[in-house]
């Protein structure tokens, strides 16, 4: 029997290794972390002793896979040249940090074109990824582009956007995709009944290809279907409801895909415990 890869985004407050203490508390077998402060450009150097502590703690945990999420400040298609350069440097550092920690999946939001136009923005993202992949060719890290709600001028709310990026990325072994249930729902991809769920996943496969799917974010949505507003809610408490999450949890094609919740929580993590318990109960 394969191990269920299920967990949450875990804080690393107190050191990268502390994420595994939180993972233990919520009984996670997969976690997502920030390897640096997600709201700052500057990232402290990870010292060799920190890497060693992190790896030793991981070995003692039940976590089978760690995923990294990049900084919220990074915009790989930024209009401002200075912001774009800072984004390039920051994303390259994210790749290097992941490689140091043996994290093979780095989830990132495509970015906002900010009036430059969608086609221009998509090409700029791919061009930047090509440059950074070349500069980090010795790193075994996959850039995992996340589907978005399409708020403002954010790209990635159409499966076609993701496909265009993949098509333009030269090294296909360095690119993957993360489906976020909240994001695709608010972007207008319906998953509220089994037939609609099947149609949406079929569309994803036809346009992008399931072979590129590396991560699934399981989040309910505070916002309405097709609203293009990104607001995460606890499982079953939002506009998606409980039932659609059973489709994700029981889809045999996704057995080996890590599933991560990114729902609001306090320091005691009781919300994570409740959400993950509910998701486990949905498995048939």
Descriptive account of the structure:
The chain is α/β, with parallel strands linked by helices and 284 residues long. It has one domain: TIM Barrel (Alpha-Beta Barrel), CATH 3.20.20.150. The chain is 38% helix and 14% strand. It has nine helices and ten strands. The protein has helices at 19-25, 48-60, 81-100, 118-135, 159-168, 181-187, 194-207, 243-250, 270-281, and strands at 6-8, 30-33, 65-69, 105-108, 142-146, 175-180, 213-217, 220-221, 232-233, 259-261. An eight-stranded parallel beta sheet has the order 1-10-7-6-5-4-3-2. A two-stranded antiparallel ribbon has the order 8-9. α4 (118-135) links the parallel β4 and β5 (142-146). α4 packs across α5. The longest helix has 20 residues, at 81-100.
Highlighted features:
alpha/beta; two-stranded antiparallel sheet; 38% helix; 284 residues; 9 helices; eight-stranded parallel beta sheet; single chain
**What number is the mean pLDDT?**
97
Globally, the shape reads: globular
Q: Which percent range describes the beta-strand content?
A: 5-15%
The biggest sheet amounts to: 8 strands, parallel
CATH topology, anyone? TIM Barrel
| Low-pLDDT regions | none
Kindly report the name of the CATH homologous superfamily: Divalent-metal-dependent TIM barrel enzymes
Annotation field: number of helices? 9
Radius of gyration: 18 Å
Number of strands: 10
SSE-based structural type: alpha/beta
Domain module tally? 1
Order of helices and strands: EHEHEHEHEHEHHEEEHEH
CATH architecture: Alpha-Beta Barrel
